[in-house]
Amino acid sequence: MNENIDIVFKMIAVNTKLLKALDSQLSIHGITFSEFFVMYHLATTENKMIRRIDLAQKVGMSASGITRLINPMEKLKIVEKELNPRDARVSFVKLTPVGMELYENAMQSVSDTANTLFEDLKVEDSIKLLEILRSIS
């Protein structure tokens, strides 16, 4: 079999394992990995705010998909929508103070889970793996 196909299937299997482990830990905080991923992108941007369409692209969703994901988050005061004063067609998504606190608590769980999942990997192997993943993403 083609080695590249083997790599693709192994990466999918690893991705599935990672998502299950992260979803399990994040459920303690009442959120899913998808919601955390949105919060991550908001928390790491200037002003904790990003255009809705750019957020959708960063998390690999359609514009309607990101809207369906953030609507319940908005009701829980994790995020808020903000209109662009110059263009009413453009809306921003902003992480609220409540959302930032939730993100910081959830990040500790994500960090602990990542450390557990990769505890048997040598530091130099982790660095090499990260370099490889960056080169293909």
**Beta-strand content bin:** 5-15%
Portion of residues in helices? Answer: 55-70%
The span between the termini is 23 Å
Major sheet: order of its strands?
1-3-2
Rough shape? globular
The CATH class name reads Mainly Alpha
User: What Rg, in angstroms, do the CA atoms define?
Assistant: 17 Å
Name given to the CATH homologous superfamily: Winged helix-like DNA-binding domain superfamily/Winged helix DNA-binding domain
The low-confidence runs, each spanning 5 or more residues with pLDDT under 50, are none
CATH topology: Arc Repressor Mutant, subunit A
Output mean pLDDT.
93
Largest sheet: 3 strands, antiparallel
Listing every helix as H and every strand as E from the N terminus to the C terminus, the arrangement reads HHEHHEEHH
Strand tally, please?
3
CATH architecture annotation: Orthogonal Bundle
How many domain regions? Answer: 1
Helix count from the secondary structure assignment: 6
Structural class: mainly alpha
